[in-house]
Design a protein that fits this description.
Blueprint: E1 15-19, H1 21-26, E2 38-41, H2 43-51, H3 58-73, E3 84-85, E4 92-95, H4 113-127, E5 132-136, H5 140-148, E6 152-154, E7 172-174, H6 179-183, E8 188-192, E9 195-200, E10 213-215, E11 227-233, E12 238-242, H7 261-270, E13 277-282, H8 288-302, E14 308-313, H9 329-333, H10 338-347, H11 355-369, E15 370-372, E16 386-391, H12 398-405, E17 413-418, H13 434-442, E18 448-453, H14 460-468
Parallel strand pairs: 1-2, 1-5, 2-4, 5-6, 7-10, 13-17, 13-18, 14-15, 14-16, 16-17
Antiparallel strand pairs: 3-4, 8-9, 9-12, 10-11, 11-12
Length: about 475
């Protein structure tokens, strides 16, 4: 295959975007995301949309949504040669209405959908030199082939929550050593129902978010260490509250104590009835699932805040599929819930002194209040006074995340767990994951909280593997 000459970007030229099928399947609203620029859909893209419209998957629903929107735009009076005006945007939508004769290198077999899209893009480049023709695709290999042919290609980035995953909100901040020197002049402190509050003014509060944790020092278990949560942020001042220290046995949650400051912050969020939505990020072994389950069981059985625990997760396999699973909904989900079983064994250890009968009774009691549900049946449901745990949330798109979070009814708390460094869903990255999306969008809401857990507590083997492999 001969290498093509790269096409330079000319900001003076009007742009014409050619959309690949996977862009429309990924974001049904992508047609309206290109502002004043024109869009063209090759005929092969419409063919591929037709092939993927059947089924109950999220991609099939997206395809049907795109088809309905195209049908709404194609009115009887529409002039395809002049393009269709796009609502919410200033550009126009064009369709391929004729066959374009464009020779491709012999190495690129004809009849393949990707190669036909490349041929259409090359033909449009030759026909419209006055325009900057750009192919947009989520397929890395198609973008590579396009560059070798001299086509300007781009990834679809409108769904990015952030430019870089390193910029993601962590949920905590370590204060400088001279913090009190700069912020103690107008300090006001008081107690209310056994809780300590502080009203602080100064330059640092401009960067704080609601329910963000601030600490002077991240010690192992220093009782005198100052750590607080930001309750309110105003232009001139902020109100913070000293947090409960869950690293001590007297504050143990279902027998579990925090082993590091970040776990302590996480338990403060999980146990706070005023926080309805919690996100926990962290690599394997940081304690996300164990802390969440302990908090859920404590609030279901001890505090009676919630009626039961509902657990679901994205069922994206790491290796080969093992085929269909028999049984009921919960039985089909059981192989995906190994982490749940492992952590329930730890939480049920307190019954060891009662012997095998005590362990069995405890397990039965826990199972009666824990429900494992599939995401496939979440649409239309409303959860009332439930503690909902969404595991492996990094594999969800922003639309799927919205579908799940909007199931929450009165008195329900939702906790999302995940590791954005381990994404198994095609076309999702650290910056486009639904988990990244909700962390960024919820960081200023007064009833949500987030913590990134960095320190592994599983074993020295797991910690070394996370660092070395």
């Amino acid at each position: 295959m001969s290498a093509g000459k790269a096409v330079a970007n000319d900001p003076q030229k009007p742009r014409l975007y050619i959309l690949d099928t996977n862009v429309l399947m990924h974001d049904p609203a992508s047609l309206f995301r290109f502002q004043e620029h024109d869009i063209l859909l090759p005929m092969i893209v419409l063919e591929e949309l037709d092939q993927h419209k059947k089924g109950l998957s999220e991609q099939a629903r997206n395809v049907r949504q795109v088809s309905r929107r195209l049908d709404e735009l194609l009115t009887d009076t529409a002039d395809l040669d002049q393009g269709l005006p796009l609502p919410y945007a200033q550009g126009r939508l064009f369709f391929q209405t004729a066959a374009y004769q464009q020779a491709l290198p012999e190495d690129l077999a004809g009849g393949k959908a990707d190669n036909e899209i490349l041929a259409v893009t090359l033909a449009l480049q030759n026909r419209h030199p006055e325009k900057d023709v750009i192919l947009v695709s989520k397929d890395i290999n198609l973008r590579i082939k396009g560059r070798t042919l001299g086509i300007r290609v781009e990834d679809y980035e409108n769904d990015r929550a952030l430019e870089d995953a390193d910029l993601l909100y962590t949920g905590s901040e370590i204060l400088s050593a001279n913090f009190w020197d700069q912020h103690s002049r107008d300090l006001d402190a008081w107690q209310e129902s056994g809780r300590s509050f502080y009203k602080i003014s100064g330059p640092a509060i401009q960067h704080w978010h609601a329910n963000e944790f601030i600490a002077l020092h991240q010690g192992e278990a220093d009782a005198d260490e100052f750590a607080a949560i930001v309750r309110e942020v105003h232009p001139e001042h902020a109100i913070i509250e000293r947090i409960t220290d869950y690293r001590h046995d007297r504050h143990a949650v279902w027998g579990i104590v925090a082993r590091n400051p970040e776990q302590n912050f996480a338990l403060n969020l999980l146990m706070d009835p005023d926080i309805d939505f919690v996100t926990l990020l962290g690599h394997a072994g940081t304690g996300k699932t164990l802390l969440t389950l302990a908090a859920a069981l404590d609030q279901v059985f001890e505090h009676k805040r919630y009626s039961e625990v509902i657990i679901t997760r994205a069922t994206v396999p790491v290796g080969e599929e093992i085929g269909f699973l028999p049984g009921t909904e919960e039985e089909k989900m059981q192989p995906w819930m190994g982490a749940l079983e492992d952590n329930l064994e730890i939480l049920a250890r307190s019954s060891d002194e009662a012997g095998s009968w005590g362990r069995s009774a405890t397990q039965d009691l826990l199972n009666k209040r824990i429900r494992v549900k599939s995401m496939s049946f979440m649409r239309g449901r409303t959860f009332l006074e439930k503690f909902v745990i969404i595991d492996e949330a990094q594999n969800l798109t922003s639309k799927e995340m919205k579908t799940l979070i909007t199931r929450a009814g009165p008195g329900t708390k939702i906790v999302c767990l995940g590791n954005i460094a381990q994404i198994d869903t095609p076309y999702l990255t650290e910056t486009t994951s639904g988990l990244t999306y909700v962390v960024d969008r919820f960081k200023n809401w007064a009833h949500s909280g987030h913590i990134t857990l960095r320190r592994g507590e599983r074993s020295r083997l797991a910690d070394f593997a996370n660092e070395a492999l």
